[in-house]
Amino acid sequence: MRALNLKLLRNLWKLRGQVLAIAVVIASGVAVLVMSLSALQALQDTAAAYYERQRFADVFTNVKRAPHRLIERISAIPGVRSVEARIKQVATLSIDGFVEPVIGELVSIPEQGEPRLNRLVLRSGRRVALGHPDEVVLSEPFAEAHGLQPGDRLKALMNGNQRTLTVVGIALSPEFIYTIGPGALMPDNLRYGVMWMGREALAAAYDLDGAFNDLSLGLLHGVEPEPVIERLDRLLERYGSRGAIPRKDQISNWFLMNEIEQLKTMSTILPIIFLSVAAFLSNMVLSRLIATDRSEIGLMKAFGYSNLQVGWHYTKLAMAMAGVGILLGWALGAWLGRVNTELYAEFFRFPLLIFRPDAGVFAVGAIVSLIAALAGSLGAVRHAATLPPAEAMMPPAPPLFRRTGLSRGRTAHWLDQPTRIILRQIFRSPLRALFTSIGIALSVAVMIMALQWIDSIEEIVQVYFHDAQRQDMMVGLVETQSDTVLQAFRRLPGVLAAEPMRFVSADLRAGNRSHRGSIEGIRPNSELQRVYDAGGGVVDVPPDGLLLAIKLADKLGVEVGDIVRVEVLEHRRPVREIPVVALFETYMGMPAYLNINAFNRMMGQGGSLEAVSLLVDESRLPALYQRLKSAPKVSSVMLKDAAVREFNDTMGETLMIYVSFFAAFACALGFGVVYNSTRIALSERGRELATLRVLGFYRGEISYILLGEAALLILFGLPLGCFVGHGLGWLMTSAMDSELYRIPLVIKAATDATAVLVTLGATAFSAAVVRRRLDRLDLIAVLKTRE
Amino acid sequence: MSESPPTAQRDITLEGRALTKIYHTGAVEVKALRGVDLQLFEAELVVLLGPSGSGKSTLLNILGGLDTPTDGRVRFRDMEITAGDESTLTRYRRDHVGFVFQFYNLIPSLTARENVALVTEIAQDPMDPAEALSLVGLAERIDHFPAQLSGGEQQRVAIARAIAKRPDVLLCDEPTGALDSHTGILVLEAIERVNLELGTTTAVITHNTVIGNMADRVLHFGDGQVIDSEHNASRQPARELSW
């Protein structure tokens, strides 16, 4: 091996602490990039493969009842490849050992052969058999939540009849990756589940012989769904269609795509932050490191090494440091990517997992980090290479310091000399000091950005579940009922108050923009369900006019005073032009409200309702549950407490992983920055500190000079970090803004404090490591040699 | 070394007994000191002469509490220094010893005055930094930073810094080693003045034999031992030296 390469290796070994500190930071950047991109890719590939393999449909719609003979005409719509006509119904279930009512969504499958679309992945047991109308296949998450297995039985209230069903199989479906009950935000596998039942059996139970009420279409490759939907809607209008939706709006897929979209946002923003921090840090460290190697550079050149060789030597040093980081980052990123993907796969229950990280992802991470490290060392290497050897071998001229106003003014009297040393050192290279502070600040900022999610989620829960919704329970009805049923609900055990809820599916149009959603009828002065502006509290409901979520108004491009064309997709399908009377901020969904009286007028109906809000006496819940289980026409029961619990559990799980991950990175950053800058300062100023020891300064006193400077820079970096952290939080929450939800930027003081403390801990640790070196300072060796 | 004090009534400031120092560098054992006995008396100026590697710096470092002997004892007045720990040694340097080195070791970020103040702030009975600087003839350059001073001036700041706390012992290791003869003499004058006016016990290491003429006593060093000792009947003023 050539002597220079040996020197390189030994240098790296001698500097191992610093090499490691830089490598850790670079590794963090590379790891985040590799992890996010590989998980993203795996998730997309897996979902696509799953959809493809199970023939997930492209268009979905439902009707009240349509005859089978219609299928032929639907198949004839240009672009349609296959049609699957099904029956979908809801049933209230009773499961032994679970007091609350459970809602089951019953979906028909052929008793013989595979369905054409939305095929099941059988996990255990078998499919339903012809001639056994009480057999069902359960969706896996639902079965697991209740510990149900093939052979178990459960009771179902189907179309007013109490039936005992036998579980024969457990399955997964691409249609129900997210199983979200009506009105829920998160899957609640205890209270809502999908069951597949034979078509004949379902048709018999719901009087739908020779008819269907749910339709899925598979389209030919490359066919846009919109023209097909238009024809389909026209065809099905008289059968009570609420309008078909393309795959992208199918609820399960929509949640899944939203999740992937968020991951995409994270996988662009976060690695950029980490890689730029890593670049910045390696820049800072390498340039100072090379500057301290001055005399060796002179020596090499005196021996006859060319500028290019010297430059290349230090370039290799920089590359080796980056290389260690890149390798670490690759390994860590690939592992975390796998773990992350598995977590998602488990969460979504993908029956298959395609994790084939693209080599390009690794290459991008490596190239960006290398460029960062090289750019960082470039200036220092060039300076080193062009220094004349004689000059390089001489100690650098004592640096010129200036007296600042600080040492001339009145304050000067109480400044002791060590403090002056600290201040002058900072003022002499303010840029370098600033960089160190920025490094600390980024560490704090990353931590705040991660922790801020917890605050934001809490705020969402508070506003959505507590401020806006005052009811304890929402009961959905199978179909629109006269509001006389309210009286029946009020008489149920434990019910303290009951209010009607109304909603219909509708297309909202303004100009050439439109949104397919629903309109909710709301009572003015409602006690239980209120229109709540996340920014300003309860919104009054005027006698007429639309109240729109700001997000929806933005989508439609309307403001207060503009007219929105409402095309109801149910009942007599009225079309009305209604002015917008108020806008309000929401975190969840994009609701549109109308005074319930105006709603009833629009629908041409007297007092009607689709759901009931209840305020209940908790002590009488079991009795209430019992009654609800046997009440016909109930399509959903949503308990707020359970919903909040589910929401927190699901969010909490993913958030903790995310937060601890970033806490680790923030620590790596804080440690890396402080360790490197103090360690370099020590090698630059070891002589000065040794002199002070000789003059009779104690170890603690010289530590004050070196670590005091670091402390001052940290002190400056911390508030700066809070500031930057709030900015990053804003950036992330804005990037996460979707139709599904808006993340409010909420950062509690405790979050700032936690971030600051974590960074302080990391920096204190690195200071302690440097302090140990300071204690072992060799006084004599330092004094005997020149700089 | 077996000489009697020149004046019996003078007190011993610093005393080394049977000092040995062995350095282990890898597998090699270097005997830097091989049993040195030495006494420095009140207000005395001693010059230690010897070639480089003869062990004189090692001796000075041990006397100044920068290093500890492998064997032997150092006493400062009634205090046993060799028995002390790290913090005792620091306290000893802080309260009693002034150092001057070949490379001035000034703090670049502090002015001449502040470099001196660095020491006076932690000393028990210091002089004013300005007074110390005028003692070495630098009253004019008091607010200059090291980078703005010549080598001789920097060395004189180092002397001012060493004597400002009114040390009991002033230890100078090759104080003129990096200077031309003219500047070197200015520096020696400063040391001489401190020795005479403040009565500070002073030891100067050099390999320049001429400097021996300004001493009360000259110790010749070789191979880790004191090989010869001579008394000067009269001290030659530093300004009359030339080399």
Task: Compose a concise summary of this entry.
The complex is a heterodimer of chains A (787) and B (243). Chain A contains 22 helices and 22 strands.
Structure characterization notes:
The complex is a heterodimer of chains A (787) and B (243). Chain A has 22 helices and 22 strands. Chain A is an alpha+beta fold and 787 residues long. Among the domains of chain A are: 200 residues, no CATH class; 202 residues, no CATH class; 122 residues, no CATH class. Chain A is elongated and about 100 Å long. Chain A starts with a helix and ends with a helix. With 243 residues, chain B is an alpha/beta fold. Chain B has a single domain, classed as 3-Layer(aba) Sandwich (Rossmann fold), CATH 3.40.50.300. Chain B is 27% helix and 28% strand. In chain B, helix 3 runs parallel beside helix 5 and helix 5 packs parallel to helix 6. The longest helix of chain B has 18 residues. Chain B starts with 11 loop residues before the first strand and ends in a 12-residue tail after the last strand. The N terminus of chain B is likely disordered. The interface between A and B is large, with 34 and 37 residues.
Strand residue content of chain B: 25-35%
Strand order of the largest sheet of chain A: 3-4-9-6-8-7
Q: What sort of overall outline of chain B do the alpha carbons produce when their principal axes are compared?
A: globular
Taken together, the total number of domains of chain B comes to 1
Main beta-sheet strand count, sense and barrel state of chain A: 6 strands, mixed, barrel
Task: Tally the helices of chain B.
Answer: 6
